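Re: weekly structure request thread

Next one in the queue (314 aa):
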Amino acid sequence: MCGIVGLHLRNPELYPRLGELLTGMLCEMQDRGADSAGVAVYGDPRWSPAGSVAVSFVPDAASTALTSGTSAHEAAATLTTALGSPVEVVDAGPTLVAHAVASPTTAGTSDVVALRAAVVASYPEALVTGFGDDVAVLKGVGHPRDLATAFGLEQAQGWQGVGHTRMATESAVTAGGCHPYAVGPDQCLVHNGSFSNHASIRRDLRAKGVAFDSENDTEVGARFVADRLEAGYDVETALKELLVTFDGFYTLLVSNSRSFAVVRDAIACKPAIIAETDDWVAMASEYRALVGLPGVAAARIYEPEPERIYAWTR
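Done, posted below.
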């Protein structure tokens, strides 16, 4: 099962409504996976303010609580000491989002690496769920509607959001097993289906020095794409290589701070629907997740074709 939703806003007037719209979409997919859920939000001024780098993390990766159990104020003090410069932390339910001012001379690249290292050093049991200049990745174990409330998702703003509701089939129900997988800067991948040859691809990636946070097959796909992007591929080329490398049945949604892409395997047995208007592009596992979007009655609605990559750029 599992449910995927994604919303890419073309009209800046809708940015303040991103969280409201994404919450409705996510909760419509809760019947497809009620054991855990997660979202990636691009451009929210609380979680990833302009001029800052952000690192999202669950302090205790083994926890199944709807709260982090760690004070945001205390985490800010701890990370400020570890980093040696001011860090602010926002409480988002099971996830905390830390952000620090980015150096204008490095475009944030080394700054986010340093902040992530401070998080890992300060919280050895933590799971880093996302990092970059523009993204916050919130996820946890529990019912999607409860998690959306714990995240404060309805209040989120921004230009793009991706969500996932999970029905676990082959790895543990933990924060590490939740989607989205955001293993590269400002990158995100969610997945409905299964990769049958993920074990051999994981072995190849580990031989290259890639570390994993879970035994989830989706993480293998995410790290494969991140590896190709780091090698200089664009998103579409990375996904073309994924299509010829991975076996199985799947629908994938991959995003970064500027793009949003959907692809299905050759058989395309996992459901997917896309809707487009001048104001937005949306994707979901089922049409019912799209019915609350403004102007959906006039949208162009279609099912993505097998092995065709659909991509939109900000």
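Residues 215 and 239 are 21 Å apart (CA to CA). The mean pLDDT is 94.
Next request, please.
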